[in-house]
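**User:**
Make up any protein.

**Assistant:**
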Amino acid sequence: SELIRRIRGESQPRMPLTGPPYLSGEEIALLEAWVAAGLPADTHEPKKPAAPEITALTDPNQPIRYSDVAPIFFLRCAKCHSKKGLKGAPPEGFIITGREESLASGERARIVPGSPDASELVRRIQGKSLPRMPFDGPPWLSKEEIEVIITWISQGAPDDKGVQAEIPVGARVRLGGTLTAKWELDGLPIQVDSTTRIKKRPGVGKRAEVRGIIQPDGGIRATRIRGR
């Protein structure tokens, strides 16, 4: 059965496409037994797989590790943002199936450790940058899921040992949002100087796209601001 060969990894590409992680040995054995028995029908209502339970943070200072956000990324984001996702190549080259991949800043940084407001990932799941993510929403991520991701980033996007990620100084960013004050994007101060290109000059209360460079303090120096 091709199904069994795919989940074992004997036929390529191995399934599920969002792996790793792949099915556990117990899950594969269960499917093998079902196929070997002749695919017997079940007279009971099939159970839907349970999603990880994400509860509101009772203490915003409680440590959040990568293992706390990974289930959210795998369930809602990795179906497209993986090496062989539903859309083929990952959209805009962004892969989120591992911590190092999600923090990569080759094309541009989507996560700025210590600064959720400057992180495109956060703005996408909040709907400040468009299109809102995940792409198959609604439903969007819950308030609790977004809170966990924001807290993880604000704490420096630590790994499971608590080691914080370095700020990708010099990396590019692309942020969408609304100007809440002059050179302030949804409350995030934007550094503007004589080299900043301004197109379709946006006013306060208008949508804008900011392209910029990450500074050593995690701030953003704008290279271009464009009204949307």
